[in-house]
Amino acid sequence: MTRRPVFLISVLAFGFAFFYIPILSMMVYSFNASRLATVWGGFSTKWYVSLFSNKQVIDALLLSLKIALVSASVATVIGTMAGIVLARFTRFRGRTFFSGLVIAPLIMPEVITGISLLLFFIMMADWIGWPGARGFTTITLAHITFSAVFVTTIVQARMVQSDRAIEEAAMDLGSRPWQVMFDVTLPVIFPAILSGWLLAFTISLDDVVITAFTTGPGSTTLPLLIWSKVKLGVTPDINALATLMVLAVGIGVVAAAIIMNRAEKRRLADERLAFRDQ
Known about the structure:
This protein is an all-alpha fold. The protein is built from 11 helices and no strands. It is globular. The mean pLDDT is 86.
């Protein structure tokens, strides 16, 4: 009886070590004074200084953040509407086809999605002259296409688990459908919406394959810049950049967890108050 917990704990510890030790080693070697990424030459922060003075990296970072913010916000709006439709309207003509369209980008290989979008933009440029060049607009539209799927999945799962009786009670008390949507439904599924936005933002900020097909000259995102540098060999400035990205993601995850925890507590308190008033 005691061997099974020990075995499971050992496997879990090995899994976490396999995942986190390379990340920790990368963070340690970002303070390496040597130009060789795998040879320790003493403690130094010069790579962080050179990183912040590198205009190419700063421009790529700003472009990636701008694309991620726009695409995640638009994808959250589209994905939230699609998730609500799939969860609340279980019977309507074309639902199976609509569900297939929603799920297709999720199971489609990124290479196929990237090629399809590239051919689509080329075809549109020949027909109507838009887009004139591939860059911010084409990358953003491509990221919206595949990131909205993840938001839809998360919101739909949350809507299915939510208690519909609360919405029906609000309508019985005289609320209009749009009031129920903004006063009841959206606050209940807000943690899922926030989770979907964060996931869409992260996926957009991290994407390489689809971005490579939909970008053009002068529109190099941060992942593409890192990929081009890594092909020539990993250098300490790449370690420093990756360390900053890990820290930024970690801070974002912790902040999101705190916000969602507070929102969930507030929602439960409002539900108890509503049932008590009844």
